[in-house]
Design a protein that fits this description.
Length: 79
């Protein structure tokens, strides 16, 4: 998935994004949260001002699964 900005880091799909400001970063996170709820699959993530770091990993499977790939794809569609 590296062509879309995702990399496998420590067994997780990982992506770091930079936005224009905090408001843009937070709005993006809100849109991702709505998708995560719809899929019932939630990211591990962090926000610091205009930066959002996302890690996707299926804890129950102990690995990256199709659920993680689907969420990554849906996140990509927002960008």
């Amino acid at each position: 998935m590296s062509e879309s900005g995702w990399a496998v880091v420590d067994g997780r799909l990982h992506r770091e994004l930079t936005f224009g400001d905090f408001t843009e970063a937070w709005a993006f996170m809100q849109r991702v949260a709505e998708i995560a709820e719809e899929l019932d699959h939630h990211p591990d993530w962090c926000n610091s001002w205009n930066k959002v770091t996302i890690d996707l990993f299926s804890h129950s499977a102990g690995a990256i699964t199709d659920n993680d790939r689907e969420l990554a794809s849906r996140i990509d569609a927002l960008l």
